[in-house]
Specification:
With 446 residues, the protein is an all-alpha fold. The chain has 16 helices and no strands.
């Protein structure tokens, strides 16, 4: 095992502000690219097909969210392990851990996709959506799942680069994929020129094609740079990757399952309300882009600095990261309050969807600051390898959405559902702040 000196570009040396911004800027841009895939699908199907197709992509997207959340188990765990090895000056150990993670991701992605194909009928029956929405949702989800393993694998490739302090390369891969998706989506949905008319399945086909291509190119680049060893994977790193990544990943799976159940409540108020849930969730992602990008930066910063035994620098980095992110999320909160109707109208001209979606954004605006603390501190705690108790607490608060939404929606309609989402998001932010201030993460081992 080779031990090397820390390079000048390491996250453990130099002034923090330029380090944070240099790491966060491409990470935020990268999260924007991830967000854009489903956003592009929703905009094109909403405009080219109609509200039922928009609702179908939104409801099918909740199982896609399950797949992505399980992929994040590898991503979060690998960042914690590989960043710690890089911080310790052990790049060979980091590369071998990355090799094991990529191979595991392909196998796990295949298993999750096969499960999704088998359970599609049950999923849409559980959500109690209208027949036309279910039919279109089947088409979208089945197509998407065929490319699921490569999408799953891309999470491990992203983590490989980011753990080494390189967020630029995965961003460039994702940006190219998004640009291709923007062009391919309408061609495959509407059947322009020589392209077949695939409808909602065309949107899913475009997404998995470009993401799969990004995965293959990413593996090749990481191999050439010595960041990954597929020929000598360290299978012994997988238990730690699972232990660190599983709590955060399963919290994402639970959140998706809760949204599926909330769909049952929302569908009682008609297809426009159902479409509004999906549109509101996507527009809310504007703030999530900044938060998640800075959270990825916080995770790598904490991981490397703890590996270098620089606890004070890790704390300082997290405080500064939250401060920078609040500038962005305060801006999105103001936009949600001031111009919700134009934001929802990007997806559809249906007045019912616009009305319900605008109400969603006004209510969720108040959760933007809470989500900033929640998600960035989750990332910081994950970088330290301390995820179990924070995620158990987050899970309990997330589960509260179901009884709150059921009770409040009986009295005040869809507003009750939107309020349940906002209130619990703020509560999770308070909980993560208390875990970070408590300091138990300092004793976690990776």
């Amino acid at each position: 095992m080779t031990i090397v000196d820390r390079p000048a570009g390491s996250l453990t040396v130099g002034p923090l502000r330029p380090v944070i911004l240099k790491l966060a800027a491409p990470a935020v841009a990268m999260m924007a690219c991830h967000f854009c895939f489903n956003l592009i699908d929703a905009i094109w199907v909403g405009r080219l097909i109609g509200p039922a197709a928009l609702a179908a992509v939104s409801t099918a997207g909740f199982y896609v969210w399950v797949l992505l959340s399980l992929g994040e188990m590898v991503e979060v765990g690998l960042i914690a392990v590989a960043a710690r090895r890089h911080g310790e000056g052990l790049p060979e150990a980091a590369a071998r851990a990355s090799g094991a993670a990529v191979l595991y991701a392909l196998v796990a992605g295949s298993a999750v996709s096969l499960a999704g194909l088998a359970l599609t009928e049950v999923l849409f029956r559980l959500m109690s959506v209208p027949a036309d929405v279910a039919r279109l949702g089947h088409q979208y989800l089945h197509t998407w799942l065929f490319g699921g393993p490569l999408v799953f694998g891309f999470f491990a490739v992203e983590a490989t680069f980011r753990a080494s302090g390189d967020t630029r390369t995965p961003f460039l891969l994702l940006a190219a994929s998004v640009l291709l998706s923007i062009g391919l989506d309408p061609l495959l949905i509407a059947g322009v020129g020589p392209f077949p008319q695939l409808g909602v399945a065309g949107a899913a086909t475009a997404s998995v094609m470009v993401r799969g291509g990004g995965f293959l190119i990413g593996v090749l680049l990481a191999w050439r740079r010595g960041l990954i060893r597929l020929d000598a994977p360290d299978w012994g790193a997988l238990p730690t990757i699972w232990r660190v990544g599983a709590p955060l990943s399963f919290a994402g799976v639970l959140l998706s399952a809760i949204y599926m159940w909330l769909t049952r409540f929302t569908s009682r108020f008609g297809t426009p309300a159902l479409a509004a849930l999906g549109v509101g969730h996507k527009v809310e992602g504007l703030g999530f882009i900044a938060i998640s990008g800075f959270a990825l930066s916080a995770s790598a910063l904490v991981g490397q600095n703890l590996g270098a035994r620089q606890l004070g620098r890790a704390r300082q980095a997290v405080r500064a990261t939250i401060g920078y992110c609040l500038i962005a999320t305060t801006t999105t909160a103001i936009a949600f309050l001031a111009i919700p109707r134009p934001l929802v109208a990007l997806f559809t001209s249906d007045p019912g969807v616009i009305a319900d979606g605008s109400l969603y954004l006004r209510v969720i605006a108040f959760a933007q600051v809470g989500q900033t603390f929640e998600i960035i501190l989750e990332g910081a705690l994950a970088g330290a390898g301390y995820t179990l108790w924070p995620q158990l607490t987050s899970t309990a608060l997330t589960l509260l959405r179901l009884p709150l939404a059921a009770r409040w929606s009986r009295g005040i309609g869809v507003l009750g559902i939107w309020l349940a989402l906002s209130v619990t998001a703020v509560a999770r932010g308070v909980a993560m702040t208390l875990f970070w201030l408590g300091g138990a993460w300092r004793r976690a081992t990776v």
